[in-house]
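Tokenised fold entry reproduced for absentees:

. . .
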Amino acid sequence: MDIVDLARLQFALTAGAHFLFVALTLGLAALVAVVQTRATFGRNPVHLRMTRFWGQLYIINYAMGIVTGLVMEFQLGLSWSGLTEYAGNVFGSALAIETLVAFFIESTFLGLWIFGWDRLNRWAHLALIWVVTLTAYASAFWIMVANGFLQSPVGHVVEGGHLRLADFGAMVANPAAQVAFWHVMGGAMVTGGFFMAGVSAYHLRRRTAEQDLFRKSLRIGIGVALPATLVTATFGGLAFETMQPTKVAAWAGSAERMAEAQAQMVAAHGPGDYLPPVAWVQTGGITMMTLFAVLLFVAGASFLLMLVRPAVRGFRLWHGLLTLMIPVPFVTMLAGWIFREMGRQPWAVYGLLKTSEAMSPVSAAQMRFSLTAFVTVFAVLVAVNYWLLARHARRGPGEVALGGRPIEDPVPVPSF
């Protein structure tokens, strides 16, 4: 593999791994907020225990996602200085806003939510989780604005061989960003819904304590996953209208359309190979759509089954299937990400900057060392996150530390 391929592989592995954390974080944030809303209004102790249980799993995944995000930013700066030098003044504005939202607002309010149990008024505490959820979605929105610019650059002018932001509103309203944002949000809710349903089904199948809690959680998970699957499919279909001509040709697999798209790019940008890797585009797209069909079928059948009380209580085969479905949305999201990102190759900024031109001036040895280091770090982080999530999910609500009553400071004893 040459240096460009090594750098692309590094970015794909690190960004793809981080994307897994993001999907679950966004999905669980909204679900925890909904459950806490019910607990706050209804004063139901079951919903309060649900908030603590699912909230602890959310915090574990959020913390690991922050770490992977920081590591990914390091490799972006190390390996892709050409991209930031050429186009950083444009898409960097969206990333700067995202950083402010995620690291200052979202993290601050999440900290207040974590340590505010039994210290804050229940309405104030409820407001905190909704601020966390909305800022998490705002963070994702600005990430997709930046990505949308790379997919379909708008709102810029070229000055001195670099891009300058000329129309911030055009960049934000970019259809390639807007449609993709809602598609990703729908996918995140599918991921969170199936995760909640799958963990609940695991406990129902094992007849662990808190059966009422997990029956309610299963219904919420499936009740969210089914409509979210339909929303994801709707915006996924709309996204085909914003795809690049070369990607459309590669997806169609028509030799005639690929030759036509290649000829148009040669006429616009000079000699070169401008077609994306057809095998990757088609494999990613087919995998995404096949697994979507599986998710839709299981979510639809599960929605009908959850209306039957005996099935929710004791249909062990169904419970086992839902548990096995937990990783499927993650694989579907990754396949969709591969389809989207591979489809714009060989461009880092479509039509403006090639991937080979976006790289930092590094040697092959440096790139191999960097790849090995980042893959090792991310493999450890993914393994630790899986272990922590599985460990705390299996333990159940009885051993949740989140929301435990704070230890009061001892009354000082006067000395004489």
